[in-house]
Specification:
Blueprint (H helix, E strand, L loop, with lengths): L1 H4 L16 H29 L25 H15 L5 H27 L7 H20 L24 H19 L7 H18 L2 H6 L9 H21 L8 H18 L5 H5 L1 H19 L11 H7 L4 H21 L5
Helix pairs in contact: 2-3, 2-9, 3-4, 3-9, 3-10, 4-5, 4-10, 5-6, 5-10, 6-10, 6-12, 7-9, 7-10, 7-14
Bound molecules: Muraymycin D2 (57M).
Muraymycin D2 binds next to helix 6, helix 10 and helix 12.
């Protein structure tokens, strides 16, 4: 909005020219989202407590989690509010990519909201059926993939980190691939969100990495020099990533150990789906496997655990899946698991950035 309303006035007030710059607007989006979270957070947490919108703790989980019963949840509502307000203020509202990101974040957020509400109403940790959630997610992700593939500026060509000449064109097969990336990312973040701040930290790292990649992808000269696909209008994705980073840093202010609030499925499904969509829009899908390695590792640990459990007649590879629970069961304190996962996430973010030069 600022770009659309204030920048055109720079002929009258020259300093308004600053709203033209992606970097300035990305920082503005991050700071705005952060402040919205930090200012409204205490009030929102108190309101959730008053309404008894608290986490139901499963009885088969780690013993250390039982004390978390009743911690306010659905903090993702505030994350989405801050992200959306900040994006509407700081992005170019004529950008279809911005509306695509706002749409997918609110749609996946609504799926998670419905799931969280059912858990709270039923007083147990079983919300929407896994199948029901999956169908809704696939539907939403398909709409995003269809829109992009029907856009003149978009194609089904895949790019790979490290291999600049490997650029297969999937054609319409890109649609199921895009759905896999968006739905996979959404559920992987959902599985990761099982310790205080555990998902929030890697989301900040991932969004920060894509903030840089989308900035580069949106600049034809730099994209060509670094041999990554040029994406018309990706600069507005940069500003949106700034809003994600700011909102999640603000949420982490309250979600760090001992958490005063959990994001709920409304937050984890939305953030994962949005990051998956950012990866698709910027044509850096495989980069998500690198920078989002924590999410990949957590999801894989569940797949391996459940698969081995079935084929081995009840044996387990990990003490408990997802992977973070394995370390809890080994006796690591929750904060040690979380900070070490953050450290790995930051290293993976640096490796992802290094692929810009290693081509
Ligand atoms: C998403 N949700 C947390 C909170 C958060 C197939 C199976 C692997 C599914 C998986 C599962 O149920 N996943 C659901 C993870 C839950 O967090 C809520 O959910 C939202 C995110 N979706 O925002 O609202 C619990 O996580 C803890 N938490 C924190 N701090 C936070 O900031 O401490 C969350 C956020 C919260 C709180 O305790 O209640 C979750 O863990 O459910 N199942 C599991 O992850 C279970 N694993 C398991 O069953 N493993 C089996 C098989 C199936 C693989 C095995 O290893 O043999 C574990 N989770 C729980 N109990 N709660 C272990 C059992």
């Amino acid at each position: 909005m600022f770009y659309n309303l204030l920048y055109p006035l720079y002929t009258e007030l020259s300093w308004l020219n600053v709203f033209r710059y992606i970097t300035f607007r990305s920082i503005g989006a991050a700071v705005t989202a952060f402040l919205v979270l930090v200012v409204i957070g205490p009030w929102f947490i108190a309101w959730l407590r008053k309404k008894q919108i608290g986490q139901v703790i499963r009885d088969d989980g780690p013993q250390s989690h039982f004390s978390k019963q009743g911690v306010p949840t659905m903090g993702g509502v505030l994350i989405l509010f801050a992200m959306t307000c900040s994006a509407l203020l700081w992005t170019d509202l004529r950008s279809d990519l911005v509306w695509l990101l706002i749409g997918i974040s609110l749609l996946f957020g609504a799926i998670g909201f419905w799931d969280d509400l059912r858990k709270i109403r039923k007083g147990n940790s079983r919300g929407l059926s896994a199948r029901g959630k999956l169908v809704l997610q696939i539907g939403g992700a398909s709409l995003v993939g269809l829109y992009l593939l029907l856009s003149p500026n978009y194609d089904g060509i895949l790019s790979f980190p490290f291999f600049k000449t490997l650029q297969p064109d999937l054609g319409w097969w890109y649609l199921p691939f895009a759905v896999l990336v968006i739905v996979g990312a959404s559920n992987a973040v959902n599985l990761t969100d099982g310790l205080d701040g555990l998902a929030t930290g890697p989301v900040v790292v991932t969004a920060s990495t894509y903030l840089i990649f989308s900035y580069v992808a949106g600049n034809a000269l730099v994209a060509s020099y670094l041999q990554i696909p040029f994406v018309q209008g990706a600069g507005e994705v940069t500003v949106f990533c700034g809003a994600i980073v700011g909102a999640c840093l603000g949420f982490l202010w309250f979600n760090c150990y001992p958490a005063q609030i959990f994001m709920g499925d409304v937050g984890s499904l939305a953030l994962g789906g949005t990051l998956g969509t950012v990866a698709i829009i910027t044509k850096q899908e495989f980069l998500l496997v690198i920078v989002g390695g924590i999410f990949v590792m957590e999801a894989l640990s569940v797949i391996i655990q459940v698969g081995y459990f079935k084929v081995s007649g009840g044996k387990r590879i990990f003490l408990m899946a997802p992977f973070h629970h394995h370390f809890e069961k080994k006796g690591w304190p929750e904060t040690k698991v979380v900070v070490r996962f953050w450290i790995v996430s930051i290293i993976l973010g640096l490796v992802a950035l290094a692929t810009l030069k290693l081509r």
